[in-house]
Amino acid sequence: MNRTVDPGPGRSRARASSPSRGVAAALAAALLAGVGVAWLTRASDTALPAASGAGVTSTAAPAAGAPTTPAPQPGSPGSPAGTDGSAGPSQPGVRPATQQAGPTAAAPDRLTIRRLGIDMRVVPVGVARDGEMALPETPAQVGWYRYGPRPGDDAGSTVLAAHLDMPGYGIGPIAAVEELRTGDVITVRSGEVSRRYAVTSVSQVRKTTLDLAALFARDGPALLHVLTCGGDFDREQRRYDENVVVTAEPLA
Amino acid sequence: MKSLRIVAATTLALAPAAFLAAPAHAADATVSILHAVPGATVDVYANGKALLTDFKPGTLTDPLMLPEGTYDLKVTQAGAGAGGAAVIEANDVKVPGGANVTVVAHLSEAGKPVLTPFVNDTSKIDAGKARITVRHTAAAPAVDVRANGTVAFKNLTNPNEAKADLPAGTISADVVLAGTDTVAIGPADLDLKEGSNTIVYAWGSAADKNLKLAVQTLSGMHSAPGGVPAGAGGQAAAARGSSEVARYAAVIGAAAAAGGLVLVSRRRATGVR
Known about the structure:
The structure holds 2 protein chains of 2 kinds.
Chain A: H1 19-40, E1 73-74, E2 94-96, E3 110-113, E4 118-125, E5 141-145, E6 157-161, E7 165-166, E8 170-171, E9 185-190, E10 193-206, H2 212-215, E11 223-234, E12 239-250
Parallel strand pairs in A: 4-5, 6-11
Antiparallel strand pairs in A: 3-4, 3-9, 5-6, 7-8, 9-10, 10-12, 11-12
Chain B: H1 2-14, E1 28-36, E2 42-46, E3 49-55, E4 59-61, E5 64-67, E6 69-77, E7 86-95, E8 100-107, E9 113-119, E10 129-139, E11 143-147, E12 150-156, E13 161-167, E14 169-177, E15 183-192, E16 197-205, E17 212-218, H2 235-270
Parallel strand pairs in B: 1-8, 10-16
Antiparallel strand pairs in B: 1-5, 2-3, 2-6, 6-7, 8-9, 10-13, 11-12, 11-14, 14-15, 16-17
């Protein structure tokens, strides 16, 4: 903005501008304008820290080292020993040697994140030939890792993942999850039952440092993880170098 | 798993020390006992002390933590007492520390009751896979075990075992006389759970026509998948890239325009030139 400066008495001669002052003023204006545009066009800062190379933090307890089904008991035969040698009350439990199918919650079939307008079908998936999680081919659907816990289980991580993009399809609806904020609600429906979760973290992690054992933990606190890809895309390998990991806790 | 171990250790501390000389945590073995002798409800003694009473055929104990070592095992008719006649007696049965073992009371091929300890494979299983272990503990000749009609384990004899890691899922299993299609047991649906070892026992007596399958499941050996490959198109990265280029252009353009405006207007104002 320019104004003609009123010289006032006794200053008429000294008012001539030097070229350097003009340039300085121009630079200052340029800087202000540039910073202003940069600030206005900044990426949304609602996502939590950008990729730092750190692995996913997990509050889940480490996976069990020794197998067990069911809980082991101490062996203490003859305690207290009766005169006829009968076993005391510490006798181990005994059950029929058959396959016992316990009741389980239904598999998840729908993922909804209202604030982002996400409403996607969920299908069970397993392991691909190369040992990675198999995802539904279309970015329109979400895969649920079928061998792990499901919503409603009282321990372990339910893992959902969807493609960020695909040749021929474009960018998938899951792309919006990077805008999730702590406290946002995610709803997962399993048949008749809908369960709500609150987002506790959104992080972008280099694939090489992703703690997969923690992510796919089957024990520890009941959690929900929603994953997609992010970071840089390698056009030859057709792979991204990072995962976006959303973690959420069940709401009562 | 952590909390289970803590419970086990605490209870051990309270139990009378008569049987357990070693501290609870030192090289314990995890031991389950399977009763696979048809027709006899029994009591089981270890080193002269009662371990189980009223133990019925076709049943399996919960896992017990036992200190490693050798044990004198004795099986009597239920209620016969520690000094009672032995249905089965096996001395110096080795229980290795840290191992997961199932001790099976069963009939030999000739029909004599015996005790066989089997060490269970609890090593890690690849993601998406299940382990199946088959054990021949029946009074019967050599058998083949089939999965969905195809022979999976050939020529299994009493008291031996075979195992394999397979894709997880449900199979229809049956047991045929080795090299034939003569079904001796089954078919039965078996759910081979991912990350678990499903242990199948053929037991009973061919002569008495009471051959059956018993199943024990050990879980917790699963592995996570090797990654989550969730994007192969690159369009999102491209969109982010081009929007960044546009942004830089806007920033530079705005700066240049603002700077230029200031310079021009200053020149006009000073009237230089």
